[in-house]
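Pilot study result, target chain (128 residues):
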Amino acid sequence: QLQLVESGGTLVRPGESLTLSCATRGFTLDYYAIAWFRQAPGKEREGVSCLSASGTSPNYADSVKGRFTISRDNGRNTVHLQMNNLKPEDTGVYYCAAGYRGFLSHLATMIPADFASWGQGTQVTVSS
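Predicted structure:
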């Protein structure tokens, strides 16, 4: 059974940094694209960043480009999202997701329907 467990969400002040982690179990990360999504109260879930199974060509939403960095450690089956210069509009529940693409595939999207496995989410609040 595929499992994803996010951690690291907390309350931070604008301008601060935070790293989210996603521990994966039950599958080999080498075969899966991974992504981070977020959902703010009253808003739809939106893609934040994605990374292919091969670890190449990360993509970012325009709103986080230059501030967030996605990374993966296939050997440890973990995924991270480094978030710098956080803004109040970054507030929301952050979800880690995985979608099968094939061994070291270069394919990755930020379309929720492309990801079959999701974590339970971790709350990030950016407020002064």
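One observation from the pilot: The chain has a mean pLDDT of 94. A full batch analysis is planned for the follow-on phase.
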